[in-house]
Description:
This protein is an all-alpha fold. It has a domain at 1-35. 74% of the residues lie in helices and 0% in strands. It has 1 helix and no strands. The N and C termini lie far apart (87 Å).
Amino acid sequence: MNDAERLTRLEERYAHLQRHQAEQDKAMLELAEEVARLKAELAALRARDTSGGTTSETPDERPPHY
């Protein structure tokens, strides 16, 4: 293998690694956005659970079949 062929193969491998890195960056950004959305949803659910803790049923109420 001469130097020109070797250089061409290295350039091809480098281009592949660049594309792979770009794809990984995109996936990481999507995952970070999803994690942020899920954190906000979890915080809203926790706030709703702690603020609106009253339910229509009492814990000692018997089910209708008794």
